Amino acid sequence: MANDPVFRVDAAAVVSDIIAGEAVMLHRVSGDYFSTDGVGCLIWEWIGGGQSRGSILNGLNQRFATDPAKIETAVDAFLADLVKHKLIYEIDRDVGTLTKASFAQQPKSAFTTPILHVYSDIRRMILLDPIHDVAEVGWPIPAKVSTP
Fold it and tell me: Domain residues of the chain, as ranges?
């Protein structure tokens, strides 16, 4: 479906893992790292599984007792944030679909808006070349830059 986009994690630039219900991502080019939990972690997991936007919305609507329009707005904003930070990009095919049976036995819970937390505090350290840009004592001590 042309209006049901599918996103893929930019595996060439992004390393991620899910640890205790929190998705943690490192963008190796920008040096920023990110985290999201709860609904955001579910969405990240489903993106990794090749789910389409529509499939993600369907899965969330089955799982959470919230107005579908609120879920759609929150998901679109979250996906836009992931794209803006170059963690994901749109592709043109759907790998799988979340089915109603996935959540049929679970009671619906309250929906919380997914949030992508962005951390730039160690960007300089991540982007250091561990051989050329460090002091003689080695990484993670950056070399002093001489000013003219």
Answer: 6-127
